[in-house]
Amino acid sequence: MPGVADMVSRRTALASLLVGLGWLAIHEQAAAGGQQEEPLIDSVRTALSSAILNHAPPVPEFADTESRLVYLRWLGRMSDRLRRQKPEWRVRQEFLQTLWYESRRAGLDTALVLGLIQVESNFRKFAVSSVGARGYMQVMPFWTRVLGDGDAAKLFHMQTNLRFGCVILRHYLDREKGDLFLALGRYNGSRGKAPYPNAVLGAKRLWEFTPA
What we know:
60% helix; 9 helices; Lysozyme; 0% strand; mainly alpha; globular
């Protein structure tokens, strides 16, 4: 009969395998992002629509040289981390520049948005979930009807998807008075449940950046 040490070792190996399979599932499938359609008061609808329809190009602006250098260091660091998902430098550069612009425009931490995208779509531009959420940030098509022209195909356009996703997350954060746990749950359609917020916050740590 196997000894206690062997049994513990086997159980540890099995646990590691199951964790690995769970992580693989996240990477191979789009998360079931299911923002719930909700009535919006006119002032909120107008504010969100204005945020979505502002077509300013995603060109970062900097108050001084040091701020620009911080951005360039961030870009280089994140580019290295994203190389596996996006092997082409120009594709990575365009994606990260747009993400930086849209996340900061919405007042969101870039690491948070990157972590959310990792969990939602693993950086797949054309990801579609089982409930129809689309693109990098797994935006539900009803948002294009509520805030735009109803053309859900536009959610596969990079800047449009990042714009919608960031504005929607900002809206949920405001609704939850800054409570990130509840806002993330609302984004996923699982408000008050821990698995999704915990997954996003865990992934967020992989994208943290401290200027050197």
